[in-house]
């Protein structure tokens, strides 16, 4: 029940954010005097509506987004009533049209920033000093976290029946123990522990010295077998190695909580990292199509592949089911930021395409004026329709592929 509740809550959060996106267009357009005739949440048949002034507001039957109808977005629009010619959008200065078209993305960014700030002063944000790379982790003291088992292959999957029990657990080691030596070899860092274990073989007996609550102790255990790539080549071929069945407990906290003022700087830093990550994710999109197809046809799902709103909602359900509300809200932040950036791409039919055309017209008029030629006027959107259809076709196919993969072979964050 909690999983279903999480799915519904996340889907509702997405619907609200998309509705606010359209509200951003609505409010800025009205503020500039443009005529807005419709604002609806959802698509399809109208369930309920009312009219206030010249605008009809309402709810449609398919809750998969929303729309805002601004009269005369392009010179080719034919829905301009007599007397409204001066209020059509395309006649307004380019800076006003840019604000109106960017308002949707700005709304998504605002939602993300507000949520990040709230998290910064409540649950905390990821600690920038937390070791996130293999090299940083190896410099940490060898304070251990016991695994339930040793997975025999090079995989991050959950334990399954038949997997070897953790040798560290069999040796009566506990979470938080700091290993100081293995078979007499001093262990000063987690990297030392990994290097020393790689020098042993599966089935060898390991004499382990450790410190627990300030008191030294010793134990012994028989090492299990797993597969790992070479320590100096994480992308190399995995081979059988000895395993103790432990992970690292970092010496730094995973999250940091800030005061109301300090949270502004932390929000800015986190948003900068989020922007870089979003740009990198957009660059990787074409490369991930084969991986999505592999997941759809029965292969393993790459956790770095894109997800649709269906996949995001499922992850939201998992987060609620496991009481991981921070994960839930971080998903909300990431999705809003991604949608905000995506909508600013200079491609029709998204908002960024309209902004790009508006500024192209402005630049072209400026150039023509400087060379003494007549202003060529507005771009003919009808001539751009073939390119728009290509973008819609590619985007639609990618969306369907992602949704199908999220239904057939979804990404999961928790073992269920």
From TrEMBL:
Domain Peptidase M50, chain residue ranges per copy: 10-364
Transmembrane as UniProt keyword: yes
Keywords on record: Hydrolase, Membrane, Metalloprotease, Protease, Transmembrane, Transmembrane helix, Zinc
Cofactor(s) needed: Zn(2+)
GO MF annotation: an example: metalloendopeptidase activity
Membrane topology, as annotated: Multi-pass membrane protein
A GO cellular component entry from the record: membrane
CDD domains: S2P-M50_PDZ_RseP-like (cd06163)
Pfam families in UniProt: PDZ_6, Peptidase_M50
Membrane-spanning segments: 99-120, 387-408
UniProt GO BP: proteolysis
Subcellular location per the Swiss-Prot or TrEMBL entry: Membrane
Gene3D superfamilies: 2.30.42.10
Chief subcellular location: membrane
Annotated ranges, domain PDZ: 163-198
Family: Belongs to the peptidase M50B family.
UniProt protein name: Zinc metalloprotease
């Amino acid at each position: 029940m909690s999983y279903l509740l999480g799915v519904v809550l996340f889907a509702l959060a997405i619907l609200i954010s998309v509705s606010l996106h359209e509200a951003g267009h609505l409010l800025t357009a009205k503020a500039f005097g443009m005529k807005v005739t419709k604002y609806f949440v959802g698509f399809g048949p109208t369930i309920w509506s009312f009219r206030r002034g010249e605008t009809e507001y309402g709810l449609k039957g398919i809750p998969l987004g929303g729309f805002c109808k601004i009269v005369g977005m392009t010179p080719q629009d034919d829905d301009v009533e007599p007397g409204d010619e001066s209020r059509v959008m395309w006649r307004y200065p380019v800076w006003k049209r840019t604000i109106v078209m960017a308002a949707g993305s700005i709304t998504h960014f605002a939602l993300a920033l507000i949520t990040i700030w709230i998290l910064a002063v409540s649950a905390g944000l990821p600690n920038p000093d937390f070791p996130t790379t293999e090299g940083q982790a190896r410099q940490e003291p060898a304070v251990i976290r016991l695994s339930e088992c040793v997975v025999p292959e090079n995989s991050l999957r959950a334990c399954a029946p038949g997997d070897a029990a953790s040798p560290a657990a069999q040796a009566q080691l506990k979470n938080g123990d700091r290993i100081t030596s293995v078979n007499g070899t001093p262990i000063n860092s987690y990297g030392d522990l990994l290097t020393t274990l790689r020098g042993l073989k599966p089935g060898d007996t390991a004499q382990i010295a450790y410190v627990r609550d300030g008191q030294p102790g010793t134990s012994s255990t028989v090492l299990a077998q797993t597969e790992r790539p070479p320590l100096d080549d994480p992308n190399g071929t995995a081979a059988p190695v000895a395993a103790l069945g432990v992970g690292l407990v970092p010496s730094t906290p995973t999250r940091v909580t800030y005061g109301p003022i300090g949270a502004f700087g932390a929000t800015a830093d986190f948003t900068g990292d989020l922007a870089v990550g979003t740009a990198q994710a957009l660059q990787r999109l074409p490369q991930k199509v084969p991986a999505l197809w592999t997941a759809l046809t029965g292969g393993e799902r790459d956790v770095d592949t894109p997800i649709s709103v269906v996949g995001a909602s499922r992850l939201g359900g998992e987060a609620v089911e496991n009481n991981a509300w921070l994960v839930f809200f971080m998903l909300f932040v990431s999705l809003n930021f991604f949608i905000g950036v995506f909508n600013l791409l200079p491609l029709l039919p998204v908002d960024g395409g309209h902004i790009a055309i508006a500024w192209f017209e402005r630049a072209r008029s400026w150039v023509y004026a400087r060379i003494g030629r007549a202003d060529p006027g507005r771009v003919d959107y009808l001539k751009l329709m073939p390119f728009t259809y290509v973008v819609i076709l590619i985007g639609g196919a990618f969306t369907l592929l992602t949704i199908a993969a999220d239904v057939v072979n979804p990404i999961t964050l928790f073992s269920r």
